[in-house]
Amino acid sequence: MKKENSVSERADFCVSTEGNDAWSGRLVEANESRTDGPFATLAKARDAVRDLKDQERRDLLVHVRGGEYSLDDTVVFGPEDSQRQGFTVRYAAYPEEEPVFSAGV
Description:
alpha/beta
């Protein structure tokens, strides 16, 4: 069964091991022409959320697709990554998938 190409209604961005940080992050997988799709890194998704949360006052969700993510740098979240006025920002595994983050040798 093929997954829908657009990020689910609830998710604002998607991260995938097959992604590209030059893409919009709004698709679950790359489009047919490979000109758009999910982000490749959690840091890029964090930065996109920072931009979006300043425009929209609502809960935000980032889905992280399954696979192994090797981190070259520490991904830092701070107070600026929280949503305002009682709303939340969540990073969650894509349904029925398991992302794994690792760093070091």
